UniProtKB/TrEMBL annotation:
Protein family: Belongs to the short-chain dehydrogenases/reductases (SDR) family.
UniProt-recorded name of the protein: SDR family oxidoreductase
One Pfam family of this chain: adh_short
Amino acid sequence: MTVALVTGASTGFGRLTVETLARRGHQVFAGLRDIGGRNAKAAAELTGLAAAEAIELRVVELDVSVQSSADRAIATVIDAAGRIDAVVNNAGLIFPGPVEAFTAEEAQRQFDVNVLGALRVSRAALPHLRRQGAGVLIQVGSTSSRVTIPYSGLYAASKAALGSLTEAWRHELAPFGVESVIVDAAPYPTSIGANAVMPADAARMEAYAEGFGGFVTELTKLQSEAPADPRAVSDAIVALIESPAGARPARTVVAPAPQRDAIESLNAAAADAARVVSADMGVSAFLTL
Ligand SMILES: NC(=O)c1ccc[n+]([C@@H]2O[C@H](COP(=O)([O-])OP(=O)(O)OC[C@H]3O[C@@H](n4cnc5c(N)ncnc54)[C@H](OP(=O)(O)O)[C@@H]3O)[C@@H](O)[C@H]2O)c1
């Protein structure tokens, strides 16, 4: 039985992941922000599910944009379970639109949740994982960080940063017996669209109206014809949690076959490049690919 904390578990991939993990017999802590307010309903549903099915699923308050909240959530897990085996850095949101339309403050909010959120939660958890000599950080990334398309530049940049953190953690934590991996997902229908934050600058948006409008039309056409099942992503996260230590790949791509194959080729080439570059720098022994 694994003890797992999943951030952003009110909806989407996070919600599916906590429900699946708990039903499979794991001890699961569902991180939700604002349990007393915006997520009161989701918290009550999860608590109700735990009681109805007699599964180990507990809701913990966790706003990833606040370090003290991350610290308290990890302390709650350790107090209750005595250890923490898996941290799923899933909480995230998207600021879609042309890069120029966003202010630096808006960009900061995009990075604060998607990048620094994972940093805060991991920083709180890692002393425990290192002490245990075991455990895994699982980040939820995006295929848009591997192949950049227009109108999601801030989001793609945040997920690229998350990918770099994941790889650095992987190298740095391996000597402690701790793993770090990322799941790069293609677009799936969750609440991410409803929660999207558009740029406030209407004038700059207007300048891009034609291109952005056409892009959104084309992008949503395929998705509405054949909606993908977000369970593909939560199943991949669950499979990583249940994999034996040392057998987890650095990057897992969850996407329709042509996209997945193309990005897996890119990932293999990037790993080859890392081998060459690290050997040339004389630091191969410090890398875990
Ligand atoms: N769906 C996709 O197409 C897709 C593709 C690739 C990657 N992803 C990534 O997958 C992850 C999950 O997204 P999703 O698609 O499942 O969307 P979602 O249904 O909107 O779920 C996002 C979750 O993140 C939470 N969250 C946002 N800000 C938070 C904060 N400051 N503290 C704690 N929780 C916070 C949300 O909580 P609230 O309910 O309180 O807002 C919600 O539970 C995200 O990192 C997203 O970038 C999604």
